[in-house]
Write a structure and sequence with these properties.
alpha/beta, Arginase, Chain A
Length: 367
């Protein structure tokens, strides 16, 4: 079959010539639009791709170096200690700063999607800006933490769990924000999980600064619903468990008390330290709200259940008694205090009625 050659002669009608011009112009416009879209995508994706490539190269180089060593069977505890001792999370120098830890990378925001969950994922920055505006804190005096690496996270987390975070659907379930499931995972890593990993680095560092200076505050963190093998409740990494394991090895301590005053039960660290006599857990929570983890409740050393509607005076009275009992039962070298703001009146999650400052005429107390 012969295909006729298409030509345009002077005998052909002028409207056909115009049709060819329109098609050519349309094709050129489409080509330019595709180019612009491609350039925009590359501009947005290039920094993250470079970051991921650098991390991949670093991990490959580390694994190559370790594989060149004689093959020996390393038990889990030895491997954990090895990872902790080689970590860089204790490196930031805070000698000339106050032991308050925060990074601008803590805050999570992307096209307003974060507002689909009642958890305020930008409160950390607002806290620091308020403290600076009131003259309590200077920007240059704040300690900037490092991001927790994969090896750091493997101190507590399983390979399977960390690999599951490469699926956006799993991250959406953990953060309880369904639209996250539709985002490409590289974007989820950059906009959601990277801020979490910086906060993990801050919590781990806080233990060291507390031992050095007597106290320390990580403005972020406190992901107490996450354990070594499971995340949930907007908690993707078990920063409290990591902080304590680092302290056992690097700070040479053996007694840690967790005082968890978030309105929700801290089922993550409870599952991680359920049978560990080195850790004493005092958890004061509302049993009528998430996570309803009955198994984890069996691992709480001192359980204080405050029902929905509990107000300041009653709350503080129960807390004072609980602290007295905890002090008589356990002598900690380090206290990890998880300060949940959801115990305050008006919080959409906690169901409690605490006033943040005063509970009566002439009496001022912090809840």
């Amino acid at each position: 079959m012969t295909i006729p050659l298409l030509t345009l002669s002077h005998q052909q009608p002028f409207w056909k010539f115009r049709t060819h011009r329109v098609i050519a112009n349309t094709t050129e416009s489409t080509r330019n639009l595709c180019k612009s879209t491609l350039y925009l995508f590359l501009a947005l994706a290039t920094p993250f791709i470079a970051y991921r490539c650098f991390n991949s190269f670093t991990m490959f180089w580390s694994s190559s170096s370790s594989s060149s060593q004689p093959a020996t069977k390393i038990d889990a505890e030895s491997l954990r200690r090895q990872r902790i001792n080689s970590s860089k999370l204790y490196q930031p120098d805070a000698s000339s700063k106050v032991p308050v830890i925060y990074s601008s990378y803590y805050d999570i925001s992307f096209l307003g999607i974060e507002k689909l969950h009642p958890f305020d994922s930008s409160k950390w920055g607002r806290i620091c800006r308020f403290l600076m505006s009131e003259g309590y804190l200077e920007k240059k005096s704040i300690v900037d933490p490092l991001e927790a690496s994969r090896d750091d996270l493997l101190v507590v987390h399983t390979e399977a769990y960390l690999n599951s975070l490469n699926n956006s659907v799993n991250v959406a379930r953990i953060t309880e924000v369904p639209p996250v499931a539709m985002l490409p995972n590289w974007l989820v890593q950059m906009k959601v999980l990277y801020p979490f990993r910086r906060q993990v680095g801050g919590t781990v560092l806080a233990a060291k600064l507390a031992m050095d200076r007597g106290w320390a505050i990580n403005v972020g963190g406190g992901f107490h619903h996450c354990s070594g093998g499971r995340g949930g409740g907007f908690c993707a990494y078990a920063d409290i468990s990591l902080c304590i394991h680092f302290a056992f090895v690097r700070l040479n301590i053996s007694r840690v008390m967790i005082i968890d005053l978030d309105a929700h039960q801290g089922n993550g660290h409870e599952m991680d330290f359920g049978n560990d006599e080195r850790v004493y857990i005092l958890d004061m929570y509302n049993p009528g709200i998430y996570p309803f983890d009955m198994t984890a409740r069996n691992y709480i050393n001192q359980k204080v259940e405050v029902v929905t509607g509990t107000a300041t005076v009653d709350y503080l009275d129960q807390l004072d008694k609980a602290l007295a009992v905890a002090g008589s039962n356990f002598a900690p070298e380090l206290i990890v205090y998880n300060a949940g703001t959801d115990i305050l009146d008006g919080d959409p999650l906690g169901g409690l009625k605490n006033c943040p400052f005063n509970d009566g005429p002439g009496e001022w107390r912090a809840a």
